């Protein structure tokens, strides 16, 4: 797609991105400025609250910049033959700790005999973290998150499933748009980043959601031999 774009189109895309990022960074900056002014005026007993808000907003600006950078540099990443389950097992204690604090539970359903895949470990961990965090943020206590793998000959599916509130039909289309968020502290860059990671791995990501039932994100990776067959020049 990028190659097909003309110069004007590319420039206007850059312009649009610049406009959105400017807007997104200005918001937390305005909040920080406002609260620092208040810190000077009000009685010191409010200071703790203001300090907390200022720190949170600065962190948010920082995450926006970090996520945006990873999104903007559509770089070629190094991949290695690695087992998806190894990555899931590295991340799961982290998620488990988070879930405990929220009173939620996490279940792993890892299918046996899943083959190794060509993956960039850092990116896939990020992908899993983003999907799992979204699920946990959507659920209340007693929510349960299932991380599942399935091997079906053609490839391996990584499935992140929650029993949260689900996503309204009208919103489903917007999920992967940069800066789309329904959270007061969201960046709206988590899913766009997931999409770009999956694309760099020649995979696909889709979402199934039913309001009141929950949401399932399904990432499909192709196994190495399917990938090789895909990349082979066609015989004439
Ligand atoms: P952020 O998490 O910063 O809002 P994301 O790009 O990660 O940004 O997600 C965009 C939006 O998609 C969220 O604000 C939320 O409305 C919706 N969403 C993502 N995952 C889920 C989920 N598992 N359940 C319900 N809504 C979700
Ligand atoms: Mg998110």
TrEMBL record:
Domain of life: Bacteria
Signal sequence residues: none
Residue stretches in coiled coil: none
Protein name: histidine kinase
Whole-protein residues included: 334 to 569 of 569
């Amino acid at each position: 797609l990028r190659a097909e774009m003309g110069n004007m189109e590319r420039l206007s895309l850059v312009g649009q991105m610049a406009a959105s990022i400017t807007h997104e960074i200005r918001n937390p900056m305005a909040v920080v400025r406002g609260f620092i002014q208040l810190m000077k005026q009000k009685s010191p007993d409010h200071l703790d609250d203001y300090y907390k808000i200022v720190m949170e907003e600065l962190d948010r600006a920082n995450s926006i910049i970090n996520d945006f950078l990873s999104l903007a540099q559509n770089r070629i990443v190094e991949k290695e033959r690695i087992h998806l389950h190894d990555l899931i097992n590295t991340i799961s204690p982290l998620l488990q700790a988070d879930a405990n604090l929220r009173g939620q539970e996490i279940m792993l359903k890892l299918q046996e005999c899943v083959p190794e895949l060509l993956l960039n470990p850092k990116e896939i961990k990020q992908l899993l973290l983003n999907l799992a965090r979204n699920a946990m943020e959507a659920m209340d206590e007693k929510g349960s998150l299932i991380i599942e793998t399935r091997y079906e000959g053609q490839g391996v599916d990584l499935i992140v499933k929650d029993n949260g509130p689900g996503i309204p039909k009208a919103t489903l289309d917007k999920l992967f748009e940069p800066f789309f968020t329904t959270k007061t502290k969201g960046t709206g860059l988590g899913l766009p980043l997931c999409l770009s990671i999956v694309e760099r791995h020649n995979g696909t990501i889709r979402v199934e959601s039913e309001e009141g039932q929950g949401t399932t994100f399904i990432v499909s990776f192709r196994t190495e031999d399917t990938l090789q067959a895909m990349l082979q020049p066609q015989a004439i």
